[in-house]
Design goal:
The chain is of the alpha+beta class. It is built from 16 helices and 25 strands. The strands form eight sheets. The protein has a four-stranded antiparallel β-sheet with strand order 7-6-21-22. A four-stranded parallel β-sheet has the order 9-8-13-14. β21 (about 420-425) and β22 form a beta hairpin. It starts with a strand and ends in a 6-residue tail after the last helix. The model is unreliable at about 465-480 and about 485-490 (pLDDT under 50).
């Protein structure tokens, strides 16, 4: 916020003067209102076995229009390159991917990724889009440069916090929105619905879109329900859908209804018991075959997780140059590939106490070791692990994330933050929601910002060079009430197993640092 003691940076000037005019008591009252509003809405998360309102800090993060232009262009560029990479490795059945043939990425790294699925090899999405929604995690380093920390193109979550944060802040700090040119975020559901409809199979003039949720026991259910409601589409579970004759159909009170596009919030392992986990009751048996037949589209595409692998992440700058013939707009965090062996692995082993070491198939806090804070036994175990499984790990120097003033125990104090912008791809354009999810590490000095480590969030205000116009709302003239019917054969045993699998998926995603609602 401050460029020098007592001197706010230009984007923060209105916020700075507003905070200076408020007493600590007034700010605390507003912070309490924010917490109560989240508790009333059910915007909670599980922390140490206790349901708590997700902490929304009363002080927003402000990003200037110029800074946002760089972020927006960089995220769109990255998503475009990821699309090209996924198309290269999945659409060219029986052929060597171009990036492999040209020596950009070794095939062994792709084939050995836990999230590379041969079951979807050769499936081409109707409009060529696999990454319909992306969440790209950014950090700002000591020099003020935004760098990409990781990519999320499987089932990225957290956008409901962006929408809920803005609603809450607009109610609690209306004076700021009356005086500052803050770009709106309420257009996201319309952006998403347009992208989903554009992904419909050929011939679907009025496509039926549904949101597939693991169920009410999943901690991200709030987000699933919110997005379905705001898009005006049905929220369904796997047992509400059936695949018949290569087509996915939804059971309703008026009979079965064909489904054209599924916005799924179920992980790959549970999505189709025919090709993945045979005991799954969260997905739809035969879904992959229906996709291959071109009768249904799934967003995001199955198998996208190979692009989330942190080894592939380390190649993204080269992939951007290869596929797009452009230099990366947003640089990566410097990364050592332990899988390369030789000098790279030895350097990491020699400097474990100076680096952050991460598993390639995790994110956030899962398995992450911050070398400067780890004790001797932890580093010794990590050294043995790296020697036994170098493919499973990368290492990065410690990045001192930028800080933003945060309301802690009645006073303002600096806390580290990151930023997850959300991008939506409709096949013609990659649009980046102006704002994104700013996550803040509430414990002093903590660098891991995810909620499972006690983190919270901030409303992210992107300033506009001009007064933003209010976007037109989607027409509701075509809204039709459809009551989804649960499969009549669902037994108590199936329901219990579904609850267990929902909670298992939830635990895996929470352990992986994914935001949950």
């Amino acid at each position: 916020m401050l460029g020098a003691p007592g001197e706010p940076r230009t984007p923060y000037k209105p916020v700075f003067h507003t905070l200076r005019s408020m007493t600590g008591t007034t700010l605390k009252e507003r912070a309490d209102i924010l917490a109560r509003s989240y508790l009333d809405q059910g915007v909670t998360f599980d922390y140490a076995g206790e349901e708590r309102p997700f902490p929304l800090d009363a002080v927003p993060r402000v990003i200037s229009a110029h800074e946002w232009q760089v972020i927006e262009s960089g995220v769109a560029q990255r998503v475009t390159a990821l699309e090209a990479f996924l198309d290269d490795i999945y659409s060219r059945e029986g052929e060597i991917p171009r990036a492999v043939h040209e020596g950009i990425v070794p095939w062994r790294l792709i084939a050995s990724s836990n999230h590379y699925h041969r079951a979807v090899m050769g499936i081409r999405p109707p409009n060529g889009v696999r990454v319909h929604v992306a969440g790209v995690d950014l950090v700002r380093d000591e020099q003020g440069t935004f760098r990409v920390l990781e990519d999320n193109v499987r089932v990225p979550s957290g956008v409901s916090y962006v929408i809920a944060n803005r609603r809450a802040m607009a109610n609690v700090f209306p004076e700021a929105f009356a005086t500052m040119r803050i770009r709106p975020v309420n257009d996201y559901p319309r952006m998403l619905l347009a992208a989903l409809r554009a992904a419909a199979p050929d011939g679907a003039s009025d496509p039926t879109v549904v949101v597939l949720t693991p169920g009410v026991f999943n901690s991200a259910y709030f987000e699933h329900a919110l997005l379905a409601r705001m898009m005006g589409v049905e929220l369904v579970e796997g047992r509400d859908l059936v695949c018949v004759g290569g087509q996915v159909r939804m059971r309703t009170t008026t009979g079965d209804r064909p489904v054209d596009v599924i916005y799924r919030r179920v992980d790959d392992e549970f999505i189709d018991p025919v090709h993945f986990r045979g005991d799954s009751v969260l997905g739809i048996a035969g879904l992959t075959s229906a996709m291959r037949a071109g009768r249904v589209s799934v967003a995001n595409a199955i198998g996208n997780g190979v692009a989330d692998d942190k080894l592939i992440y380390s190649y993204l700058p080269e992939l951007i140059r290869f596929y797009l013939d452009e230099d990366p707009i947003l640089p990566n965090v410097d990364t050592y590939r332990c899988a390369d062996g030789g000098e790279a692995l030895q350097h990491v082993l020699d400097h474990l106490d100076e680096m952050v070491v991460k598993p390639v198939d995790g994110s956030g806090g899962k398995g992450l070791v911050v070398g400067p804070r780890a004790d001797g036994p932890t580093l010794d175990r990590l050294r043995r692990t790296l020697e036994d499984d170098p493919r499973g790990w990368i290492a990065q120097p410690v990045v001192q994330l930028s800080t933003v003033p945060t309301f802690i125990d009645g006073a303002l104090a600096p806390r580290h933050v990151d930023l997850r912008p959300f991008a939506v791809n409709n096949g013609e354009q990659v649009r980046v929601l102006p704002g994104g999810l700013t996550r803040v590490a509430l414990p002093e000095g903590e660098l891991v910002v995810n909620s499972s480590q006690g983190g919270g969030s901030k409303d992210t205000w992107v300033l506009s060079d001009r007064r933003a116009s209010v976007p037109a709302t989607a027409s509701s003239s075509d809204n039709r009430e459809v009551v989804v019917m649960t499969a009549p054969t669902a037994s108590l045993e199936d329901s219990m197993r579904a609850q267990q699998q929902q909670q298992q998926q939830d635990r895996e995603r929470a352990a992986a640092g994914e935001p949950t609602c």
